[in-house]
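I am still getting used to backbone structure tokens and would like to learn alongside you. Please make up or recall a protein chain and show it to me in full. Would you write everything just below, so we can both look at the same thing?
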Amino acid sequence: MAEQDGGTHAALDEHFADGFGKIVFHGGLIRFHLSSLSLTEVDDKNQPLMKPQRQIIMPLSGFLNAYAAMGDLVKKLTDAGVIVRSENKTSGDDGAT
């Protein structure tokens, strides 16, 4: 269970995801799936499939604020040496290792 913030709010529900699945912009809202590896379904290479578990819906402004916050966190993690950028970036590669 999540920690409480000094007792002013109840603990938040926590949901684990291995990553994002589909991300769609429609009707002024961003909708994206939080996905997890399936325990029972595999692809043709016998690798677990990513299966959507939850959908998060937010306005464009909230999505852009979250995007900026994640960028700030990536910068902090890079500065701290937690994320190491690769010099040999290829198309579609974010460079993180």
User: Anything to note?
Assistant: Strands lie at 19-26, 29-42, 48-59.
